[in-house]
Amino acid sequence: MSELIDSFEQLRLSQPLLETLKEIGYEAPSPIQAATIPPLLEGADVLGQAQTGTGKTAAFALPILERLNLAERLPQALVLAPTRELAIQVAEAFQGYARHLPGFHVLPIYGGQSMGIQLRHLKRGVHVVVGTPGRVMDHLRRETLSLAGLRTVVLDEADEMLRMGFIDDVDWILEQTPAERQIALFSATMPEPIRQVAHRHLREPREVKIKASTATVETVRQRYCQVGPQHKLDALTRVLEVEDADAVLIFVRTKIAATELSERLEARGYPSAALHGDMTQVLREKTIEQLKNNQLDIVVATDVAARGLDVSRISHVVNYDIPYDTEAYVHRIGRTARAGRTGDAILFVAPRELRMLRAIEKATRQPIERMQLPTQEAITGHRLAQFKQQVSEILGSQDLEFFQEVVAEIEREQEISAQDIAAALTWLAQRDRPFQFEDTIPSELERLPVRPEREPRSAPGRRERFAREGGKRDTDLDKVTYRLEVGHQHGATPQNIVGAIANEAGIESRYIGRIEIYDQYSTVDLPDGMPKEIFQHLKKVRVRQYPLKISRLDEADVGDQRPAPRRASTAKKIPREETNPPVARKVRKRDS
């Protein structure tokens, strides 16, 4: 059935959801979505085997949203996830897909977050609950979470819940659900305990098995660079400057993004063209022909538009936007290293997208090496080397007798040296493309180390490595306390704040220190010396639809609620869970 479905319109989704999918760039359903959405819309149980990164969140979220009764403010769907990070990610996905469903509410619940916050949201009413098994059990035992109106239960990454020892908890939770409810169970593998759970609780499930592709080309060098969204254009400019590329194919998620990025590259002096689904076949073929015939070196494309694209001179594929699933990644990088050549694939990853990066590595069974952005000094050196090479080639291939007489004449008439004349001519030659490259990536962020692989807390050698690297931890950096104009009354959580700062400013969460949340505002400790452009950008960033309006605490007018000024500390504590927290309760950021 999935082979016959090549558009979301064929899945009988409502117009608000189709409109959202179009806006966020979903042009065609992935295999797991095409196979899973129809039976879930029919109300059938589903047993799905699919890797992380195959698009399964949309596969269960879209049918749930389609079948919701928004007039009923009570939990109609429960999604169980093994970790709080995944619970937050799934909840954010629901919120994104439901942007055109007014009144929709989703709540992530997990350990480490104040029970009081969760109780207030549950009391107000939510449609979808996404939670870790332990915290869901807590609410069920306290009778603060009612499953009376539950219609759908999703078990996401069931094998991970088994590995983490949650499978008995999952079994218990399923026993508390109504008899007439739909269950969708997703797991990358199907060990016997998972099959036993499926046998006990699922009714005649439709089985869906999606095998993630691992056919990445061995002749493609794969690299990734961690960069925040607001710096991606400058990062791309640096890559285009230094990489020895023949033709470059840049992938983005949406048609609008393809057109906009192409125009912005043109404005920076990089001739390029967009390639997307709204283009006529004639224009699409013309663009591809120009790429083949060396008339065009840069094309910005969406996934659907680049299907079947076979141009042997494409030396580099740049994933400007990380793909939604691993299949798309494999397809993208397969556009290079054609006809027996080697190729390069570069992936831009925001801090919050590192989970998808790991999913790609796991699915393809190939590591993606870290890379640092070329520095301004490296770009200047590269431009100088190119200029010197051009001068050398002209000296060896052109008749310069007439131009030598011109220089001699200027030298006689103006009584200046040939060296000064050469310097002036060099300035003229590089005026439109200065040797001294500048962009807006803050030098402070440029020097931040790339996030290392996470180690278990008990991993041997961690302490020895710390000593070897000089004994200075990331969290030992000098920090300044800032005030944010969002607090408990706005529904702000530490995770909201960390996510907003990490994603919008490109500052990794490990550089974000203590967070304290009050009723009207919050405070956060950030590294000293924040660049002005990032500071100005953060003022406009929103948490729960409210602007942060960030300001330094020692300069802010915080009235009677302001805590006494103090040196920022990076001590991290796990807050005690309180059913009735005080008004000015302090919530501290936990380790991930």
UniProtKB/TrEMBL annotation:
- One MF term in GO for this entry? RNA strand annealing activity
- What name appears for this protein in its UniProt entry? ATP-dependent RNA helicase DeaD
State if RNA-binding is listed as a keyword: yes
Q: What does this protein do?
A: DEAD-box RNA helicase involved in various cellular processes at low temperature, including ribosome biogenesis, mRNA degradation and translation initiation.
Gene symbol here is deaD
Instruction: Give the UniProt entry's GO cellular component terms.
Output: cytosol; ribosome
Record-stated family: Belongs to the DEAD box helicase family. DeaD/CsdA subfamily.
Organism in which the protein naturally occurs: Candidatus Competibacter denitrificans Run_A_D11
Q: Where is the Helicase C-terminal domain?
A: 232-379
Annotated ranges, domain DEAD-box RNA helicase Q = 6-34
Q: What is the lineage of its organism?
A: Bacteria, Pseudomonadati, Pseudomonadota, Gammaproteobacteria, Candidatus Competibacteraceae
